[in-house]
Amino acid sequence: MKIAVLGTGMVGTTIADKLVALGHEVRMGARSADNEKAKAWAAAAGSKGSQGTFADAAAFGELAFNCTLGAGTLDAVRSVGSALDGKILVDISNPLDFSAGMPPTLFSGNTDSLGEQLQRALPNVKVVKALNTINCQIMVDAGRLKGEHDVFMSGNDKEAKGRVAEILRGWFGWKSVIDLGDISTARGTESYLPLWVRLWGALGTADFNIKIVR
Predict the structure, then answer these.
(1) Cβ 77 vs Cβ 54: under 8 Å
(2) Domains in the chain, CATH or no CATH each
(3) Closest alpha carbon to 88 in 133, 51, 118
(4) Spatial contact of 111 and 174, defined as CB atoms under 8 Å apart
(5) Structure confidence at residue 89 (pLDDT)
(6) Computed from CA positions of residues 16, 18, 20, 22, in that sequence, does the dihedral angle turn out positive or negative?
(7) N or C, fewer C-beta in 10 Å, the chain?
(8) CB 199 within 8 A of CB 207
(9) How much is the pLDDT for 184?
């Protein structure tokens, strides 16, 4: 499958590496076609990896992962034009504001979410918020943690969420995928991030997740 990964940071490279390892063709997108991080990743990825602008990657992929830094997400996706229309965009970004240092605040407030902003900016794209509540190493390998734990998703399109659930289970090893509802429920998972940051500091590791006990 041809897949676009938007973003060149740790999350983007981790997702892209996993997808290439699974045999998919991946194009990493950045703001410029000569982005050094994207070029280095593509060179290391071999024949299954390539790079270009956000628009190049969006046009290439049958499916896309948004791994951009939250503060730059809307500018990044607006630059792709209609290249993502009709496609599923798995949104992993978070609205974290580091302008005042650590810990970050949420620039979206609690009456909106970056997931919703992304869906409004791309009305013809099937945005599914997922994987934004965990470290990138766990995103692509749920078995990295012992025992049962959960991943969440939000989105307006039922079929798109069904496909993303299949990807989470089949590609990344997730056994428990909880569908929270429409894209407005991304407010909940994004609002968890301030607690995640505090847990990271208290535990001294990013290798943790939560389990819903009923």
Answers:
(1) yes
(2) 2-203 (3.40.50.720)
(3) 118
(4) no
(5) 98
(6) negative
(7) C
(8) no
(9) 98
Alpha carbon of 15 to those of 4, 26, 114, 127, 204: distances in Å? 10, 10, 20, 17, 23
What's the confidence (pLDDT) of residue 96?
Answer: 83
Tell me the C-alpha to C-alpha distance, in Å, between residue 107 and each of 84, 138, 144.
Answer: 25, 25, 31
pLDDT surpassing 90 at residue 150: yes
Q: Could you give the CA distance from residue 208 to residue 142 in angstroms, rounded to a whole number?
A: 10
Q: Which of 177, 171, 126, 134 is nearest to 153 (CA)?
A: 177
CB 172 within 8 A of CB 183: no
194 prior amide bond cis, ω within 30? no
Report, as an integer, the average pLDDT of 46-50. 97
Q: Name the pLDDT band for 108 (thresholds 50, 70, 90).
A: confident
What is the pTM assigned to this prediction? 0.96
Rounded mean pLDDT of 14-22? 98
Q: The tokens 């970050």 sit on which residue?
A: 104
One-letter amino acid of 189: T
DSSP 165-183: HHHHHHTT--SEEEEEESG
Q: How many CA atoms lie within 13 A of 168 on its CB side?
A: 26
